[in-house]
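Key idea: predict the complex, not the pieces.
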Amino acid sequence: MKNSSPQSLTFFQRNSQRISQIVIVTILILLTLPIIVGYAWLIIRSFSEDITHGFIPTKLTLKNWRFLWQEMKGYPNIWHTTLNTFLLALGVMGIEIAVTSMGGYMLSRYDFPGRSAILKFILVLHAFPAISLMVAIFYVLWNIGLLDKLWGIILLKASLEIPWGTWIMKGFYDGVPWELEWAGLVDGYGRMKVWSRIMLPLVKPGMAVTAIFAFLSGWSEFIFVYTFIFSQKTWTLSRYVMGIIGDYRFADYGLLAAVGLFYVIPTIIFFFFVSKYMIKLTIGGVKG
Amino acid sequence: MMVLVAIFFAAPVVLTVVLSFTSMDYSFEWNFVGLMNFKDLVGDYLMPKILANTLIYTFSTLTLFNVGTALLLSLLTTSISDRLGDFFRSLWMLPRLTPSVVYGLLWLWIFDPTKYGFINNFRSFFGLPPQDWLHTSPMLMVVMANGFIGASMGMLIFTAAIKAIPVDYFRAAMIDGASWFTIVRRITLPLIKWQILFVTAYQTLSLLTSYEYILIITDGGPVFRTEVLALYTYHTAFSNFQFGYGATLSLILVGIGVITALVYLKLFGFEALMSKPRIEVD
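Result:
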């Protein structure tokens, strides 16, 4: 390469392609720095006694993780709280998958009266932000006796996400060719069997993605838990971490980092799968 | 399915409207007071401050991050190899998936007023004293925290749009000797115009109603300096337990949202706006 370029070209002209690449990557790293720095700190700080120069641990320790084996004063048991969080995430995921996998199929394949009305309704509901409904939701939960109950949050969270989840699943069903269904019908399957035997396996990737997003959104839920849950035995991790931030913010960053990192572990595990899918999703395109 | 959505979604919409004409508090009694809440609203001495905050917060987050940084990221990541580009784009997705309290914690640390905070630690290398960022620039904190999440949606949509542009256009421009900036300005930007308009409109509405990260990071403080309308609504209802007035504020918030949406629709053209979005990230 180098030898073939004419001598009259300067160093910058010969390597312009590579130099511009390096410049671009440098700018990207600088832009992304707060994200990189933040997560690196979270991991490093949770295992160190103290840190100097931003990132260098003075001494490694597990003391920050003490909340796992001893109860923090004034806080519920961490494993009980984790179980609550897990149940919330699982509940939201279960309901959402069950409803959207059927609802999406109906909207995609059946031409029932009111179909287009429902499709429009879903879009309108999506435009209605949850904040504008908080007061009324509080009243509804109180009225049906689900205030301060995990079930209340599960049902609430799932129903707020079902409309859009159905829309997304409809997109996946739309992508499956009609012919596959015809083949099933010709061979004597009923409509339900076509759905369960032929269609469901084909939209599995869509279901997996919907499931992971539902799980993560249930796992991360903060506002509803913070507002509609009062008793400590129903707390989830987001409420726990919020409490710890309030009480230990200036006193013990090690503890904060450890609790935060503990909470974010499932997110990081799923992140590698989901992020890859999310950035590909736009290229393949989910049909609206 | 419809029952669930009706209970938790449709019913609250109706309830909010009815509640706004009552003075309900935590005793849950229905006291209809007519238009009193709306009169209170006009006389609310905090209102000008809060509306100004909302405007500053929405506008700066939108221009600097949700559209600005998003555009920059998509332009830069599509100019390098796909693998590296995907890597950076994934990194930007991380904040969106992280639980909000943990993400908030990261910013609390970055802007910590003591020498342990990241920025203050960095300043100490140059012999500068630690600064109390919460009091000097609280709005900057919430704008940055929200911006680093908001930028990823625009980034994905713009990236998809840029990748959909036929490569021939770029090749032709390069043969003609056009620089990177000329290509961006003359070819890329005009071709992804609709996506930019869509993200602008959509994110304005999202930002108007977003308050979760502000609640975690500054809780509207110090002294209402970061209190936006959505957060004020929340505080009215759940810190002061004025459910009636809270519902009224919600209505105002929705009203502002609807008006903004209508203005955008008028400005950009209805049909084009509805047909463009192909992906939902939020």
